[in-house]
Amino acid sequence: MTEYSQSKLNSVNRLRKRGKYDFETIHGLVNQAPVVHVSFATDASEPFPTILPMIGQMGSFEDTSSGLDSPLDCYLHGYVSSRIMRLSQEAVARGEDGLPVCVTATHVDGYVLALAPFHHSYNYRSAILHGYAQPVESEEEKVWAMELVTNSVVPQRWQNARTPATKAEMKSTTILRVKIYAGSAKFRSGLPHDDRFDLKDESVVGKVWAGVVPTWQVMGDPIPSPDNAVAKVPTYLKEFVEKENIRSRDIALNAIKE
Predict the structure, then answer these.
(1) Upstream peptide bond of 164 is cis (omega within 30 degrees of 0)
(2) DSSP secondary structure string for all residues of 106-174
(3) Cβ contact 105:30 at 8 Å
(4) Scanning 13, 108, 120, 235, which has its CA 20 to 30 A from the CA of 219?
(5) Residue 120: which of 202, 212, 253 has the closest Cα?
(6) Would you list the DSSP string of 174-232?
(7) What's the pLDDT at 80?
(8) CB 252 within 8 A of CB 241
(9) Element (H or E) spanning 238, and its range?
């Protein structure tokens, strides 16, 4: 199994058994997240890091057939004049590897309600990537990445939308390629884990409900815009909504199992 090397930067320290480092798991969690959060430092005069919600997707332009279990880059989509784009360009211009960034993805699969507040938790899946962000300069790679990111939102959407992008659209959009330096994932699944003294206390067990509330995102039926002239919802979109709702539900229900 190909995985990221463990180091002080990415090792899971608390509840180490929940940590995972293989490419397939980590890359899959990033790809399944509608939004990833990207953090980076601005400059020495600003004490706080910046965190941005962005659309991201793992892929390899050098080998487009690469699967999730291969070394991949993370492509981020953004507006050309945004701060992260400017800082990435400046880092490359200085001869650096790029702007150091941290990309995170989190999925919540259930609310874990224990007898005591101390043991309340979530069933969750999370991934963290550390890497260096560089603006994509090649127009060929940029178009490829724009298609990759677009289809990560809804599969086949690029092929079923007005393309190619106009010159103005290409000019106003920047794609960042994050070369991954380290990565890790962490999971929690199962039922509440209560202390023995609470489980043996009938006054507690008989009064406090304990268990898991499975949680998943549900997509509603597509609603046409006022300008829409297509009579029926396209098959690719209808199937995506149906399959995604089933997939999300199954993950949440399976997460209850230890």
Answers:
(1) yes
(2) EEEEEEEE-SSGGG-EEEEEEEEEEEEEEE---HHHHHHHHHHHHHHHSTTTGGGS--SPPHHHHHHEE
(3) yes
(4) 120
(5) 212
(6) EEEEEEEEEEEEEEE-SS----HHHHT-HHHHTTS--EEEE-----------TT---SS
(7) 80
(8) no
(9) helix 235-254
Q: What is the CATH number of the domain that holds 167?
A: 2.30.110.10
**Residue spans of the chain under pLDDT 50:** none
Count up the domains in the chain and report the number.
1
Q: How far is CA 160 from CA 40, 147, 156, 236, 256, in A?
A: 35, 11, 6, 9, 37
Please state the pTM of the whole predicted model: 0.93
Q: Which residues contact 250 (CB under 8 A, 6 or more apart)?
A: none
The answer as to whether 79 is a domain residue is yes
Strands 50-59 vs 211-214: parallel, antiparallel or unpaired: unpaired
32 lies in some domain: yes
Write out the residue range of the structural domain in which residue 164 sits: 16-110+122-192
> What are the structure tokens assigned to 173, written together?
């959009």
3-state secondary structure of 253: helix
* Measured torsion, CA atoms of residues 91, 97, 101, 103, in degrees rounded to the nearest 10: 140
- Whether residue 237 lies inside any domain: the answer is no
Nearest in space to 156 (alpha carbons), one of 73, 69, 243: 243
Q: How many residues does the chain have?
A: 258
Give domain status of residue 31, yes or no. Answer: yes
In the block, which residue shows the tokens 């199954």? 250
pLDDT of residue 1: 67
Q: How far apart are CA 127 and CA 107, in angstroms?
A: 9
**Residue 108 to residue 104: CA distance in whole angstroms:** 13
